[in-house]
Every structure is written in structure tokens, then in C-alpha cells.
Specification:
Elements lengths: L2 E5 L4 H11 L4 E5 L10 H4 L9 E4 L2 E4 L1 H11 L12 H29 L6 H24 L10 H15 L7 H11 L2 H7 L3
Parallel strand pairs: 1-2
Antiparallel strand pairs: 1-3, 3-4
Helix pairs in contact: 1-3, 1-6, 1-8, 4-5, 4-6, 5-7, 6-7
Bound molecules: glutathione.
Glutathione binds next to loops.
Keywords: Transferase
Family: Belongs to the GST superfamily.
Pfam families: GST_C, GST_N
Amino acid sequence: MLTVHHLNESRSTRVLWLLNELDIPYEVVKHQRDPETHLAPQSLKQVHPLGKAPVMVDDDLTLCESGAIMEYLLDKAEGSCLRPNTGTPEYYQYQEWLHFAEGSLALPVIASLMMKMEQRTGDKPMDGYIAKEVNVDFAYIDATLAKQSYFAGSDFTAADIMMTVMLEIADKVGLLAKWGNIKAYLEKVQARGAYQAARSYG
Ligand SMILES: N[C@@H](CCC(=O)N[C@@H](CS)C(=O)NCC(=O)O)C(=O)O
């Protein structure tokens, strides 16, 4: 049975959400963040040397990186409509957003979250960098969602799962206040049953 190592309030929600969308059977091993440091417990290090979530184990394959796990699951569920056909314009939009979530958006969003948790302000290089990144990234995302329903076009795909989990953190930190299209999009995808089932794991 495919196993997902899930850390509460983490990117492993992406993997659980996709598994629910694809109807692939799985079991969940839960790991709990340290309430003070918010870091993962040692139990995750026993599964993978990085000690971060998500980790997926399927037979003799152990994988980390949420994007890579998503691609693995989509290969497993061959023919799923959650990844557009290779070579189509939608496929490359899908690829762009799948990578954008971790490659571009994660750094300013997670840095904002950390600074908020530490109640840190006045750090000039960091403030300037975050303000600039947040502005260009969210303007681009909002404009994309103004012209199409989902990140890869008119259909929901796994790129939406990758992006939503990062957008939710941004929302929690208060970065989405002026971006109406992103807020409306979040409400729409959060209404999906597969999302709600994934969130029930914490
Ligand atoms: N780029 C990786 C990021 C993995 C990551 O940083 N996971 C966080 C949770 S969202 C984690 O395990 N943090 C706890 C820790 O580092 O101790 C992915 O997308 O899977």
C-alpha cells in the first residue's frame, strides 16, 4: 500500500489532496510539528534523511519533494485529466505553475511567514526583497486567474493543488488582501471534496 508521511499544516496536504482526486488507495502516517519550533519531529528523519514532509513510500521507492511526488502519482494514474496532454499549450502552462509554486512563490511567502512568526520588521534588504517579489508574483497570479478559471486553463489540474497550498499560506500571512481574483479562486478550489478530505488530516 502506498504510504504518505504527513506533517500537520504542511505541503503534504498536496499529496493527500491529489491522491483523493485520483482515487488511489493510500495510508497516512502522521507526524506532528514541535509546537515551539514548528519543525518536523525526528520520526520523519527515520523515513528520509531530509526529515521534511511530504515523503511518499511506494514499494521500494521513497520520494520527497511534493512536485516530484505529484508527477509520480499522475504517471501511476495514467490518462488522468489532472495533467494536460504533453505538448499542448495547457501542458506547458501546467508545467509553469507546477514549478512556480516552489521555484518562485515559496521563498517570499515562507520568508513572510517566518518574519511574522518572529514579529520581525525593519530588516531592510529582506523587507525590500519580499515587498517586490510579493507584488510582482501576486499581480501575475491575479491577472492569470482573471482570464482563466484554473492555472492551466479552463480545467482543474494538479498545478492548482501545488499553487493552492502556497496561496493559503500567503492568505494566512495577510498577503492576499488586495487580490480579489485569487481570493475567489481559493474559495472555489477549497470547496472540492478531495481538498476537504485532505485537510481533515490537519
Ligand atoms: N520543496 C519541498 C519543501 C519541503 C518542506 O520544506 N516541508 C516542510 C513542511 S511544508 C517541512 O517539512 N518542514 C519541517 C522541517 O523542516 O523541520 C516540497 O515541496 O516538498
